[in-house]
Amino acid sequence: MKYDIVVIGSGPGGYVGAIRAAQLGKKVAIIEKYSTLGGTCLNVGCIPSKALLDSSEHFHNAKERFGDHGIEVPSLKINMQQMIKRKNEVVEQTCKGIDFLMKKNKIDVYTGVGAFVTQNVISVTNGEGTTEIHTEKIIIATGSKPITPDIFHYDKNRVITSTEALNIDKVPAKMVVVGGGVIGLELGSVFARLGTSVEVVEYMDRIIPSMDTDCSKELMRTSKIGYDLSFGP
């Protein structure tokens, strides 16, 4: 099969680029190694974390603010399994939306790992074998993964990344988050609202160091998270 443009990776960069190319009249294919489209953002990033932030905010409001309105919830408790189930349903619905957009824009989807054979030939390998497709142009949108230094003894159980944190089945008593960026603070906020004692360790001298200083100050003032910035330069 020959295409004008092949996109490797179906995250927000990949699928949006593929759709725009198709809208401009190009014959487009997209390659994704996982079984669902959407990349990290839709599957294990922005969308599921926002779903949990939404759920945890409801719990926080019921616990801390409903009383001001004369609303009493004496037996308030967390059903973590239902919270995760609802998050998964949000993710599934969103990913199905990307499937629909691919079909609507007549974009062919190949599931497997893409690799260059030549500058104009891409191989796609999956459990069923290898397929070669030809293309004039290629967009590489493969995304990234968390760094897991060996010294942390990453075991996906006690030491986890943001991916595993999205599926914790009970609220932990204490959590240490290494990295005070957007991802760490999002998930730290989720569990802090649910009652976990959360400590964030950040190398720089403030949290979310890539953003405005005012944002850092406001987050440190309003959140229920502890911060350790002693490792900064």
What features would you describe in this structure?
Helix content is 38%, strand content 23%. Strands 3-2-1-6-5-4 form a six-stranded mixed sheet, covered by helices on one side. A three-stranded parallel sheet has the order 7-8-9, covered by helices on one side. It has helices spanning 12-23, 39-44, 46-64, 80-104, 162-165, 182-194, 213-222, and strands at residues 2-8, 28-32, 108-111, 113-118, 121-126, 129-140, 174-178, 197-201, 226-228. The mean pLDDT is 94. It is built from seven helices and nine strands, in the order E-H-E-H-H-H-E-E-E-E-H-E-H-E-H-E. Helix 7 (213-222) links the parallel strand 8 (197-201) and strand 9. The chain has two domains: 1-144, 3-Layer(bba) Sandwich (FAD/NAD(P)-binding domain); 150-228, 3-Layer(bba) Sandwich (FAD/NAD(P)-binding domain), CATH 3.50.50.60. With 233 residues, it is α/β, with parallel strands linked by helices. Helix 3 packs antiparallel against helix 4 (80-104) and helix 3 (46-64) runs parallel beside helix 6.
Any chance you could write out the topology, listing elements then pairs?
Blueprint lengths: L1 E7 L3 H12 L4 E5 L6 H6 L1 H19 L15 H25 L3 E4 L1 E6 L2 E6 L2 E12 L21 H4 L8 E5 L3 H13 L2 E5 L11 H10 L3 E3 L5
Parallel strand pairs: 1-2, 1-6, 2-3, 7-8, 8-9
Antiparallel strand pairs: 4-5, 5-6
Helix pairs in contact: 3-4, 3-6
